[in-house]
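TASK: fixed-backbone design
INPUT:
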């Protein structure tokens, strides 16, 4: 089976508030998003001021896979899709200061 390669637009989101798993995020145009996010396989929790780069599709309510609840973990985690590229819709990047971490969306 062949898969069509899509051009993924990543949105830079600044964490402006965290309450348990509820993250209030803001893009560069000051649009706010409220998502329930869980991050596995990382040493330190995210903090206000850290950044998340996420596919615009995951933020679009019209996207078939849209949700306000996402769990992300290590690229090698068995509960996500296999053989992902960094340009895949299920891959996000976290910036914590100078540290950059790639995670993938987990299912199940």
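OUTPUT:
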């Amino acid at each position: 089976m062949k898969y069509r390669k899509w051009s993924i637009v990543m949105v830079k989101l600044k964490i402006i508030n965290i309450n348990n798993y509820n993250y209030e995020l803001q893009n560069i145009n000051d649009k706010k998003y409220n998502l329930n996010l869980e991050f596995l396989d990382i040493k330190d929790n995210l903090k206000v001021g850290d950044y998340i780069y996420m596919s615009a599709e995951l933020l679009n309510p019209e996207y078939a896979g849209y949700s306000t609840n996402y769990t992300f973990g290590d690229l090698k985690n068995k509960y996500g899709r296999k053989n992902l590229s960094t340009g895949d819709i299920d891959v996000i990047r976290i910036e914590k200061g100078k540290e950059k971490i790639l995670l993938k969306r987990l299912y199940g």
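COMMENT: The two ends are 23 Å apart (CA to CA).
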